[in-house]
Each structure stands twice: as structure tokens, then as C-alpha cells.
Amino acid sequence: MAEAAEKETRSNEESTDESEEDESEEEPKLKYERLSNGVTEILQKDAASCMTVHEKFLALGTHYGKVYLLDVQGNITQKFDVSPVKINQISLDESGEHMGVCSEDGKVQVFGLYSAEEFHETFDCPIKIVAVHPHFVRSHFKQFVTGGKKLLLYERGWMNRWKPSVLHEGEGNIRNVKWRGHLIAWANNMGVKILDMISKQRITNVPRDDISLRPDMYPCSLCWKDNLTLIIGWGNSVKICSVKERHASEMRDLPNRYVEIVFQFDTEFYISGLAPLCDQLVILSYVKEISEKTEVECCARPRLDIVQPLPESCEEISSDALTVRGFQENECRDYHLEYSEGESLFYIISPRDVVVAKERDQDDHIDWLLEKKKYEEALMAAEISQKTIKKHKILDIGLAYINHLVEKGEHDLAARKCQKILGKNTELWEFEVYKFKEIGQLKAISRYLPRRDPVLKPLIYEMVLHEFLESDYEGFATLIKEWPGDLYNNTIIVQAVVDHLKKDPQNRTLLRTLAELYTYDQRYGRALEIYLTLRHKDVFQLIHKHNLFSSIKDKIVLLMDFDSEKAVDMLLDNEDKISIDRVVEELENRPELQHVYLHKLFKRDHHKGQRYHEKQISLYAEYDRPNLLPFLRDSTHCPLEKALEICQQRNFVEETVYLLSRMGNSRSALKMIMEELQDVDKAIEFAKEQDDGELWEDLILYSIDKPPFITGLLNNIGTHVDPILLIHRIKEGMEIPNLRDSLVKILQDYNLQILLREGCKKILVADSLSLLKKMHRTQMKGVLVDEENICESCLSPILPADASKSFNVVVFHCRHMFHKECLPVSNTVSSVQFCNICSAKHRGPGSAILEMKK
After folding, report:
1. Which residues in 415-444 are b (16+ Cβ under 10 Å) and which e?
2. 683: Cβ–Cβ under 8 A, 6 or more apart, which residues?
3. How far apart are CA 90 and CA 78, in angstroms?
4. CA-CA distance, 318 to 320, in Å (whole number)?
5. In what order do the strands lie in the sheet with 58-62?
6. For residues 713 and 679, is the Cβ–Cβ distance under 8 A?
7. 74 or 4, which is more confident
8. How many other β-carbons are positioned within 10 Å of the β-carbon of residue 132?
9. Structural domains present in the chain
10. Is 202 exposed, middle or buried (0-12, 13-18, 19+ CB in 10 A)?
11. Residue 832: band (very low, low, confident or very high) from pLDDT cuts 50, 70, 90
């Protein structure tokens, strides 16, 4: 709750959010509101003394002896006049059907809210507490306890009579009691006791720490967290006790249960009430402080703290000061803290006020973030919890965030957030655009305007484009390039650009943009003219994309001047649309461009431009001599006589040599090499290529009186011509450079040839011997002769039908078989016979290998 000043008006004091918190960045854990309606009416005439909370309703006791049943909104549903004096305690069973009430005049009543069941008893002393059994609604649990000077247990017995029994006495007044399951905990002047109702044994005594505090002024607060965990708050001390089962071996005469204090710590202020919150504690504290004006100790606003218990201390999670009515006059005993277990609701009761504390939900979290102007975090929280939040809408938070950014002057960030927040809502988009126009920030939002799904009215886009056209040509050009042409009225924008070009006709940015607009409007011819004028790189893309080849037939020179490589590639890729003849014709007056085109055409296909090969000779000679010789070598359609004429005119020796050799005039070619180039190595290479003895002879004759040439010949001639032919012709006394080295090289080459021959001979002999051995092994193998074999001459079975008769059979290595008498008689002196079929005239595979006689 926001902290309120002392001079706050009554209307503000009664607002629903009056508990206070520090002005820090830490978000509070709880939210507060007054319990109003009937409660307000009651507390205007009476004062609250106690209250009990059930999940279905509330029960409020007052100082004038009234008990009111209230709904959770504070509306009165039922009223009971119990006593003329203060109600000390109200107790409800778990079902909420039975109530126990005790008052300062000693009256105790236990009755059914929906039945006629009732118990009345009046004691001679004030009864401070009453507690009905949690399961009182069941017949065998009709029990309740009261506490004054004694702790009495009442049980309904035979004939519906109530039988009292003393559970404890002698240690002062019983001031608090809490019944949970089978365990009863109570506090008197000496400390806190716990009774096990099953064994009827007292299982612990937790003594009071600070005995200097009056127990009637600083009463003990008790709270069961669960069936086995008791929380005790007294003075400024907190103890959390756990009820545990005793091991059988430890029993002897001891109770079967014992209590262990698991957490214990002190607080800064006096405790008026406590309640569990998951694994944390909610503590209501009574605070005293020194007045700055009077310097006298006075009552301050009570505090509601959430702490995390530690073994010997605690960690404060949150702390709120509560502005309750009349807090200046209240004492520690005047405050009470009750809670509803299932809903995490905490009720702070004071004589003049009842405040409800709730755990903050996601809506409250978003409220706090918005209050702290943390809009981005609020938006993220709303997106995560959009199914659970009830109070807030993501769109409203987003719009507030955009407005906040605009107010801070962060226009670009605000525009960027519009994409996410406004989504597909065209009305909101248009509203925000006009808002940005009012503050002169249309440029900021231009980059983030939707271009597809949704699409805004054309007027919006045109308004932005006009803004850029007036002040930023480059930005205007960027938008035209990025935005689809159907977002705005193209005619209007084109006219606007034309008007600006009248003032600045050479502005390249506007010209380029106008070409793009013409393209969107499908006026490609005009766009192409501008692109060519600007020599813009997109001209080729435009031609390809929109198939503008018919429009560029008379603009080929312009394209070639702009980028000859791209232009030639495009023309060659689209020969079907612009023919080779048309291109050559258009480039007739620009032979250097004509050469570039024909050269690339020749590289792609040697035969396509064959009709222009004669023209290309002159073009290569004029503009690209390095590629002339490769062209002459690769072209099969080039007229050699024309090429020779041009090369001789321009004194292109290498090309002339090639042409002469190709035309069969090798001797003239060699002569030109020797006389014009004076390059013996090239002459030798040429002679090697031609492999003509007459050329070698001419080369030797030409070189015989030139010592450097002789050296070159001696170094290279050895493998093609006998060096002796050259050496014999050298004149005596002629000085030849490096003669010794040349002769040594000749000898080395000769030795190398001899070594190669010997090596080859060894390999040949070894292979021959190996093959001979293999043939010998093969010929030594036996050959199967059986009844299925026939004589290759008479075609009768090779073996006689009567095996007892004598016969002669000849079997050749070729596997042909003959009767001996069927073989022709040999005229030679040698007795070796040969297969008649294989017609072997020399000794070989067909020679006879076996003669069988019997």
C-alpha cells in the first residue's frame, strides 16, 4: 500500500489500498483492502474484539457482546446477541456448522448454526478462550474446551449430558488455545503446553522467554501449520515446533510423542499474530516508536511482515506498514491475525478496522510494473500470463508503452514496438501514424509500417513518401526500393518525383528512383532509358526480368559501353532474341566492341561465328594480338592466305611462321625463325615438330657458320640426328662457346641411350625365358584321349572300336588329333610333323607332341 501522510483526507483513508510500503523498487508480496459493507457499519457503533475465518464465511465478535456472521465481502448474513460485554473468542469446527463463543462475563455457548443443538454455561470468572473439536459435527467428537483459570474439556455423554474434566490448572489464566486433529495447544502465564487427546497425556511444555512482559498485554499467538507443526509467537520470539513420534525403545514412562523446536528466532517488534504462507511466515507486529515532535514513545502503525525462517534467524521477504483506523490508541492485545488456509487470505483485525491481505496475482504484478513505468516488463508479464490475467489487456499495456516512449523522446524504439504491439490492427496503425506525423516523426515509423497483412490505406504510405521526398532523397529512394509498388498510388508519386526533377534534373538519386517507379508501373522502356543514362547496374537485371530484348536492339552500343562483359554474356545467352548478325551490324562502327563480342562468341563455340572469322583476323591484329595465334590455331574456317597477308604486312613473325608451316612451307617458316627471330631453340623445336630430315639439314647448313647456333644444336640434336653429321662439318679453328659442355652432354646422352637399350634387352631376354619355361611346362602336360575324340582328317573316332587291335595316333599341341595313317607324308628330312589344320609352317604350338602306338 502506498504510504499515507497524517493529514490525509478521510476519503483517501478509506480507500481500498491503504497499507503502506517503502518507496523502493522492490515489489510488495501482498495487496490490501478494507473489509467494508456491513463491517463498516458495525465498527462505526461498536469495536471488534475477535474474529474467526471459515472458508465459507467470517464470524466477528465485538466489545458489546455481539457475534456477526459475514460473507467474504463483509456483508452481514446473521447476528447473535450473546452477551452485554466483550466477546473473547469464537471457535468454528471444520464444517462451519457449529460455533463456540465465550465472553468476558463468563458465558460460554456452543450451538449449531443450522440445528437446534445448543450448550450454555456461565462461569464465575471471565472465560478467555473456547475451542470446539475440529470434527464436532460428528457424534463421537462432541467435545470442546474452555479456558479461564482452568482448562476444561467438555464431552457429551449418556443422555446428552455434558461432562467437564480439568485438563490443566494452577499456572494462571488460559489465554489462547488451538485445536488441530488430536492435539490441543494452549498458552497460560508460564508457557505453551500441548496435549495428545488420544493418550490424554501432555507431551511438552515450551516456557515463555521474556517473563517481564505482562501476558495479558502481550498475549501468546498460536497457529497450527499442519497436524504436527505448531508456530508460537510471544513477545518478540518465534518458535516453530514439530511433534514427532518417540521410538519404542525410548518410551518407558514417557509419552509416545515429543516436541522438537526446529526454528527459533527473535523479531524486531512485538508479535500480535502469525500465520503460515507455504514455507514462509506472515507476522503481524505491534510497533512503538519515538515521536519526532514530542520525543515520547507512542503507538505506530502495525506491520505485516513475510519472513523466511532459518534455524537461528530469519530472512525478511517483505514488510508493510498498515494504516488502520485508530492505530494510535491500540495495544498489542488489540490486534489479531486470522487466515483462510485454502486461499492465502490474511485478516488483520483491530478494534476499529478489518483489513484483508491477499497474495498479489499477475494483475497486481502488472499494476506495480506500470506504476513504476516498467512497461516492457509489464508487457512481457501480460504475454506470459494472458490466459490468467483478468484486469489487463496486452494491447492496452502496449499502447501505454508506446505513449511512454514517445513522451521520453525515444521515437525509434516506440516505432519499432508498434510492429509487435499493433499487430494487424489497421485502425491503430493509422492512428499511430498520424500521431507520429503530429510530432514530426514520420521518418521514425516509416521503416516499421506493415507491407503485407495488413496493408494500410494508400494515403498513409503516400504521406510518408512525401515527407521523405521533401527532405531526404536517399531515404525516399530506399522506401521505394523496399516497399511493394501496390502500397501507394504510383501515378501520384511519379508526378511528385517529376516535379522535383524539374528543379534538379541531374539528381541521380531521383532519376534512379523514377526508373524504379516506371518499372513498378510496367513502363519498362522509360525505365531502361534512365538506367542506361545513369549507367546503372540494374539495367541487365531489368532486361532479363521483363524480357526487354526487343527494346535494346538499337541500344547495344550503350550497353557495351556501360559494361561490355555483362552485355556480351547477356547477348550470347539470348541469341534467339537478338541474332549474332544483328549484334555485329550494330557494332560495325565500334570495331573494338565488335572484337570483344566476336572473341567471346569464338570462345564459346568455334563454329557459330565462322562467317566472321576473316573479319576477326584484322580485329585480333588490331586490338588483341596475344589471342591472334590461339585463334589461328583453333579456327578451321580462317582463310590462311588472308591471314598470312595480314601477318606479313604487320610483321607478325610467330603468326607468319605458324601460317607458313600450316600451309606446308616449312622451309620458309624455318628460315624466318632463323633470320627474323634468331632463336635457335625455337628453330630446333620447330624442326622436332615437323620431324623432317631436310629441315634438319637446312638448320645445320644455316647454323654451321654461327657458333652460338652450333652450341644450341649440339645440346639438342643428339636424340634426333646423328651428331657426327654436325661435328664433321664444323670448320677447324672455329671457336664454339661451351663446346666442351656440349660434347660431354652428347656423350652422356649416348651413354644414356646405350644403358636404356641394354636395360630393355635384359628385360626382353628375361621375359622370353619366362614365357619359354611356361610354354615348356604347358607342353609337358598330358592330353586326355578318349572315345569322344575324333580324327580331324577322317572324322572317325580316334580310338578303334576293338581295343585289341594295334593303332597309331598323333596329338598336336593345338589339341588336334589324327590317325597316323591319315597324316600326309612329309617331304622334308626332319621327322617333325605339323598340324594340317593349323597350317603351321614353322615349329610352334602346332608341332606334334605325342605319338601313341599299340
Report:
1. bbbbeebbeeeeebbeebbeebeeeebbbb
2. 670, 673, 674, 677, 699
3. 15
4. 7
5. 48-53, 58-62, 66-70, 76-81
6. no
7. 74
8. 23
9. 45-279 (2.130.10.10), 280-358 (no CATH), 360-447 (no CATH), 457-548 (1.25.40)
10. middle
11. low
Interior angle at CA 712, CA 709 and CA 716, nearest 5: 140
Residue 237 is placed in which grid cell?
Answer: 520470539
H or E stretch at 4 = none
What are 55's three cell numbers?
Answer: 472458508
3-class SS string, 605-660: CCCCCHHHHHHHHHHHHHHCHHHHHHHHHHCCCCCHHHHHHHHHHCCCHHHHHHHH
- Dihedral sign from CA coordinates of 619, 623, 628, 630: negative
Query: Cell numbers of 621, please?
Result: 591484329
Cell of 353: 478496522
Provide the grid cell at 511.
532519376
Dihedral sign computed on CA atoms, order 404, 410, 411, 417: negative
> Nearest CA to 619 among 642, 835, 283, 636?
642
Report the distance separating Cα 314 and Cα 334, nearest Å.
Answer: 26
Q: Which of 175-179, 607-611, 768-772, 844-848 has the lowest mean pLDDT?
A: 844-848
DSSP letters for 696-740? HHHHHHHHTT-HHHHHHHHHH-TTTS-HHHHHTTSPTT---TTHH
Q: For 231-271, how does the pLDDT look when each residue is reduced to its tens digit (9 = 90+)?
A: 999 999 999 999 998 887 777 778 888 999 999 999 989 99
Query: 454: Cβ–Cβ under 8 A, 6 or more apart, which residues?
Result: 424, 425, 426, 429
Residues in the chain: 854
Q: Can you tell me which residue has the cell 475465518?
A: 53
- Residue 206 and residue 218: Cα distance in Å, rounded? 17
CA distances from 642 to 550, 609, 664 (A): 37, 17, 16
Residue with cell 649440339: 714
Please choose, from the candidates 739, 719, 661, the residue with its C-alpha nearest in 3D space to the C-alpha of residue 695: 661
**∠410-416-421 over CA atoms, to 5°?**
110
Q: Which residue has the cell 498510388?
A: 489
Question: For 714-767, how does the pLDDT look when each residue is reduced to its tens digit (9 = 90+)?
Answer: 666 655 565 666 665 666 666 677 667 767 776 777 788 888 889 999 999 999
In angstroms, the Cα distances linking 839 to 305, 778, 842, 850 are: 126, 21, 9, 18
DSSP, res 311: S
CB atoms inside a 10 Å sphere around CB 792? 19
3-state secondary structure 481-535: HHCCHHHCCHHHHHHHHHHHHHHCCCCHHHHHHHHHHHHHCCCHHHHHHHHHHHC
Joined together, the cell numbers standing for residue 52 give 474467526
Which residue type sits at 64? Y
Residue from 722, 746, 646, 25 nearest 368 by CA: 25
Look-up: residue for cell 450454555?
120
C-alpha distance from residue 249 to each of 196, 421, 530 (Å):
20, 70, 105
Beta-carbon-side half-sphere exposure of residue 835 (alpha carbons within 13 Å): 20
Quick one: cell of 764? 626382353
Alpha-carbon distance of 463 to 442, in angstroms, equals 9
Give the count of beta carbons closer than 10 Å to the beta carbon of residue 134.
20
Tracing cell 494508400 back to the chain, one arrives at 458
Q: Give every CB contact of residue 303 below 8 A, 6+ residues apart in sequence.
A: 269, 284, 285, 287, 319, 320, 321, 322
Q: Distance of CA 803 to CAs 315, 807, 820, Å?
A: 125, 9, 16
Cis check for the bond before 28: say yes or no (omega within 30 of 0). Answer: no
Q: How far apart are CA 68 and CA 61, in angstroms?
A: 7
In terms of Cα–Cα distance, which of 405, 489, 490, 407 is closest to 448?
Answer: 405
Closest CA to 354 of 61, 4, 28: 61
Whether 232 contacts 206, CB under 8 Å: yes
Contact predicate 101/67, CB 8 Å: yes
